[in-house]
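To whoever picks this up:

The parser on our side crashed when reading a file containing two proteins. I've narrowed it down to the boundary between the first structure block and the second sequence. Both blocks are reproduced below exactly, byte for byte. First block:
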Amino acid sequence: MTTEASHPLYVPLRPEPFPTAPMTVPPIPAPPVPTAPFQAGPVPSGPVRAAPVPAAPAAPVPALRLPPERLRDAVLAGAGAVALVWGVQARPSARLDALFATGAHLTGLLAGYGVLVLLLLMARVPAVEHGVGADRLARWHALGGRYVLGLIGAHALLALCGYAVHTHTDLVTATGDLLAYGAIAAATVGTALFAAVGITSARAVRSRVRHETWRAVHLGALLAAALGFVHQLAGPDLASSLLTRWLWSMAHGTVAVLLLWYRLVVPVRAALRHDLRVVEVRDEGPGVVSVLVRGRGVARLCAEPGQFFRWRFLRRGLWATALPFSLSAPVRDDTLRITVKALGDHTRRIRRLRPGTRVLASGPFGALTAHRRTRRKVLLLAGGVGITPMRALFETLPGGPGDVTLLYRASNESGLVLREELEAIARERQAALHFLLGRSDDSYDPLAPRALRDLVPDLAAHDVYLCGPPAMAKAATANLIRAGVPASRIHSEDFDHA
């Protein structure tokens, strides 16, 4: 049974053919110049001047995106430059204390550089967020954090052993002597703060720690980075060269400015400019609500279907936490819509929001957009409340009849969020829509490679957009690859990391 969508934000779109050439932003044609009915009259004696034609509005400027490969290459190049600085100053020696000291210098420089990279990855720079994707940045940040903690530990141990060998003392005495130096004492405090961040980020610990506690501990990493910077400036690798010292300071200053600008100034400026407020909270099903947020000049946020914001609702129990939710509909009439399932304390409180509640929205973020598309045909694969970005893409991705297919995995019919809207969009676009119902532990898996090929016969020729619970997304990715879809054409974002 198919019914028309009841939501005012849903407006049927006429299907547009997917261009065979690379996708570009088409120019907006100039409006026609109104003319009066033709009437004969005297011919003017002077020169005839053409009537001015109104200029066409400027086409929207595409968002700047830094591809993940370029970011990765830049990070590796920076590490190579840091190693070169160490190599130029290193003095070959077979003495044991010198070997320890040389290793301490290298690991210390790489650790300091690694901290800068970790801060940059989480600075929410739009070009990086839109090009790489928030979930990939979070995974890189987590992996890089392990390496940085290892380098910090190696640096401390090598420096301690080198000092003990050089002064012919035991490790305990050497530790006491080194802590008498102010720069080393600062580095020790910074190391303890970094260790606390690492411990609370471990999966076994994070699941038991409140999000607010985890966030507060992570803010301590900023103090740890500052203390580490003080320690680095006092070290021989930077103190011996004015140019190296200047470049190192500029790198730290640049990252600090990016952090302050994009994580503090930009959100505050956006809040003052757009004055976002809740206008309606609507039930969508068991434990699921849609929240409509309206403001001034929302179109200037340039939010694309598939992207998400970090939302901070200024009411008791919610104001202290920024929650990542995707847009579940395109932006229209200065209105943003998110659809939220009650999965925890914060999401359960959202259904009790009242119209007029002020909202701080940071973003947009994410790279799960039409920009990633490389093929004419597209498969959208959603699980549970992961339908929200897929619903926006299902409506807006260019394509003719049969070019876009949506597979929606849910345990039962009551778990199908926004079903009426999806059916209306499918009918209007002549797109394929399949609801895959059943428990995840059932004997039949509708996302098995053969089942996917039966539902989408030319599956290998599709781009695939994927969003759902982490376990479902991981299994679906593996099955898609086994079904013949190249990994490079499987586009997903895991909001558990974002």
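<<boundary where parser fails>>
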Amino acid sequence: MTNVKLYKFLLSLKKCFFPAMLACFFSMSLHAQNPALKPVRLQLKWTHAFQFAGYYAALENGYYRDAGLEVEILAGGPTMDVVTQVVSGQADFGVGTSGLLLDYAAGKPIKVLGVKYFMLSPRTYGIDFYGDNFFTSRKMFQKNEALVNAFCAATVRGWKDALENPEGVIDLILKKYPTEMSRDHLRYEAERTVDLMTNLVSPGYMLRGRWEHIADTYIELGMLKKRPDLDDFLLLPDSLMLPAWFKDAVLGMGLVFFVMLTILLYLRNRNLKLKHRFAEQTVQEEQREREERLKRVELQKVLVRDIHDGLGGIAANISFTAVLARNEVDVTSKDKWLDKLERLAREVNMEVRDLMNSLDASTIQWPDLIDSVRRRSDLLFDGKKTMVDFQIEGEPVAEDIGLVEGLSLIRIAGEGMNNVIKYAGRCSYDSENSP
């Protein structure tokens, strides 16, 4: 019996002692694998919910462990004073609201490390505050700045994962963190969080100017007397001051600006050239119009002179010849005057025809000018015992001449032939054109 009892005792030791030894061995082994992990505690401001999803994701995905931290996440509640927990050293990090600025102004030695940024509609109502802020004590930051920076970087990575995979974080909360929220409630909270957190900046990103605005709002509400110095309140390293895409965005915007500036300068230069060309064309057109007006005025003068000298002279001759014919008694003499009246009538006809032709043209062709002069000579010397040697020597300088010049030449030729009839008995009339 004794041997049987001893056997049963040893068997019970085997069932209890060896598992305990194995557990102790594996625990020592795991501790030996991560001897440098620094234990830290994160105090939440409320019970476990999706609003802390980034911290859960950073812990679950090993980002804290990669940073050399062994993080314990402590749930909060309605009576939890997170600032006191952190300042007293009972927690190393905490999650608070924008009211942390009031605690800092009241003398609490705290330092805000980053924010869960919201593009929240309360801005419409004149309120533009940050959402949750993770922070630490000034003492913790001064003694362990590298640890604090590592915690910040790991937390930001966790928030990025949580926003990209909210359903996975919901499963994690329901599995590992006690909560009274149902899956539907957590999913609704996740949707609202993803919607409210900005898509333009990285999680953790914050602006000094926004905190200054928050301070000014507290002053307007009578909760602060003056804006406190924010240098010791905010941690704004490069990794938190600017989102990861900021430099690329600035470079891209600079490139777009350069292209737009180049296009604008090109369009401006082209517009100036077009204006200059248009101005030149306008000046040229105005010059042509002035020249045309001068030509028309000159033509009007020539026409008036031709009418006066040509038709007026012929009309005077007709009148004078008619008086002589009326006073003539001899029939033969009357016939002579009547012949002269007939010739004058034909001369009127020719003058009128030339005048009408000149009104329809802006230039006179040389052949037409020569034909007109010859017709005049035929008419003037018809029936006279006078030999007319009519020649134009040389080559014309152009195929046509201006109307004013042409009419002037015709008038000169006509006056020359009239002088031949008046003052010469036998002579020749040469009309010379020098090229």
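After patching the parser it read the second block fine. Residues 13-33, 119-125 have pLDDT under 50 and may be disordered. The beta strands are 38-43, 69-74, 93-96, 110-115, 133-137, 363-365, 400-402.
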